[in-house]
Amino acid sequence: MGVLMQAFYWDCPREEGQEYAWWNHVASKLGELQQAGFSALWLPPASKAANIGGISMGYDVYDYYDLGEYVQKSVRPGETRTWFGSKDDLKVLIQAVHDHKMKAYADLILNHNNGADQQEYNPIARQDRWTLFNPQSNRFTRDWTCFNPSPYREFDDVAFGDMPDLCHINPRVSTGILNHAKWMIEEIGFDGFRYDFVKGFGAWIVRAIHDRNYTRDNKKLEIFGVGECWAGDEFIDSWLDSVNNWAKHRIGAFDFPLRYRLKDLCDNGSFSLRTLAAGGVLMKDRPFEAVTFVDNHDFRGDGNDEIVSDKLLAYAYILTHEGYPCVFWKDYYRYGLAEPGKPSGIERLVQVHESHAGGGTNILYVDDTFYAMERTGAGTQPGLLFALNNSGGTIRHSVKTSFNGKPLKPLAWRAKDRIYDPQTITTNGGGWCEIEAPQRGYVVYGV
């Protein structure tokens, strides 16, 4: 299925000195990302934000059709661009992504808006509210009837902060959303969507987007979709069922339950690896709908902390196991975990994922400190053998694999705080071999 790169993090234009030029900055990295093996980029919200109190990351959308061409909501005189760049810059980036044989996914904000032009009296709420939107694009204008509470009754009481909460069953809103999605695919060039805060609106609107027909350059398209359903396993299951049970084109969800286990693995030295073999995560229960990840832009404190220790253990896990793995730009570039050309970084793990990580998963051994599994292989991917060690010293174990009578060489590896040089292992005719992993480290073996 490939590997996804989340091509931004919170305040990334400022952090990397790329204000109003992020689209161009990402474009400059496409060659190395393609060479590493990435297949798609998830880009930040492209529509013009309200920018209340200063320039923003775009999650306070004001004009869906302003991708950086109107002066509205500017925080400096005469500026038309979003914090990431101009509409033309974005289109050039997307074309370059396609030229590099990758896909580009947009971050869609379909629950809340901000920065209305005027207050209106809402007779249901019996108060004045900021709900009149007359953007310069003159497309997808909104008034008080477009937001809850509205004349259209909707069982939706999950608002995002104090931002006006869109009423999706108002035909004006649902039509506006569907037309905007079609425009983003067919005219701007995106290949799919990440849906922000899906707990805040009915799953039917996502299903409607994906059941629609799309064409570009006279060719029919199938779009990708993944929902940010930040919840436990049962809630995510229910949401996925509500989207996919009657859908022609299925979408996925981020595997938040797995992410919290991975944080415990990395930041808690007493974490039991037996937990990695348990269900209750999308990767195990419905792997074809699981988008696995280690960190994202929302894990930045206030109780939602990023992983701070031994983060490559988590990346080794998601890039060898089933699911659609997503790598975080901040980890790859800002924290230097790509380690290009080395066997111990994310770049090598992405390459191994693309070359070897096919087929089903067999857990071969697990206890509190040692975990071993194999991928059985599919198509051109021959499979792999993965060993993870959570202890303070090197561990070896005999395991029975499906690789009968084959030498398995180390493809990627890492050890905590020391040099490690793993050796090729050879299975006997029954598939048995002795595998080794270093302290707080891992080895990926393959043919």
TrEMBL record:
Key words, A-Z: Carbohydrate metabolism, Glycosidase, Hydrolase, Metal-binding
Ranges for domain Glycosyl hydrolase family 13 catalytic: 2-353
UniProt keyword annotation of Metal-binding present: yes
Pfam families for the chain: Alpha-amylase
InterPro entries xref list: A-amylase_thermo, Alpha_amylase, GH, GH13_cat_dom, Glyco_hydro_b
SMART domains tied to this protein: Aamy
Cofactor: Ca(2+)
Protein name: Glycosyl hydrolase family 13 catalytic domain-containing protein
